[in-house]
Amino acid sequence: MFRAMKSLSLALCAFSLLVFTGCGKDSGKNIKLEGIQGPKITLIQDSVLISMVFENIQLDGGLRYNIPKYKYSFIEISPDVATSGTVMNVSIGLKDLLGDGVTQLDPQRLPGGRNLPGVRTGALPAVAFSIEKFHNMSVYASKDVFGLFIPANIGVDGAIASFRFYIGDKKAGTISLVGRDDAGANSGVLLLLDMKGQVKEQLMNLSSSKLR
Predict the structure, then answer these.
(1) Is residue 196 part of a domain?
(2) Is residue 34 part of a domain?
(3) Phi and psi of 137, rounded to 5°?
């Protein structure tokens, strides 16, 4: 018991060195992670754009990948001029996000098999894939939740820390920092958006004319 508590304390201390949170409960401010900017979410025409900058990952050129099973969605990675790192833009088509097709995929947990934090069953319909510099990405979608797991070096073993995620000043879901598993792998950032409340209502209103 003491060893488990000590391990948890060490993990939380390590997270505190990496993460700076907004002040106060429900502050409306998202956490900031050393070496990563974002995620930032914007609506562009008929897509949801999730943008992140990885300051410590370098690419020589830009690449674009289609997301498997997501007909209207893709990922772009390219060098970031401001930081000498890498920009990742994940474009999720509203036809994919609000349609029924991707919610019929087989349920999956986090890469490596751990439960998805905050999800009752621990798993959601998902597709897993890899691109250059980012091995074992996952995109999750159910009628209530949309999620994105992006592998990243969090620098912590074992622990998973979750925080509220805001779009503007409104609660939109959670963001989790996933430490390495027992195999010393599968760390990253997990974004889960609540698709049964205001977020989905806003998307439906914006996309109604495009989905007809």
Answers:
(1) yes
(2) yes
(3) -85, 155
Find, among 186, 151, 128, 167, the residue nearest to 36 by Cα.
151
**CA distance linking residue 75 with residue 64, whole number of Å:** 6
Domain encompassing residue 87 = 21-207
Question: Helices marked H in the chain — which ranges?
Answer: 2-18, 94-98, 198-207
Q: Would you say residue 145 lies in a domain?
A: yes
d(CA 172, CA 30): 11
> How many Å is the Cα radius of gyration of the chain?
17
Output the CA angle 161-165-167, nearest 5 degrees: 165
Query: How many domains, in total, are found in the chain?
Result: 1
- The DSSP string of 40-62 is EEEEETTEEEEEEEETT---SS-
pLDDT in tens, 169-210: 888 899 999 999 999 999 999 999 998 766 666 665 655 544
Compute the distance between CA of residue 44 and CA of residue 89 in angstroms, rounded to an integer: 12
Report whether pLDDT(55) > 50: yes
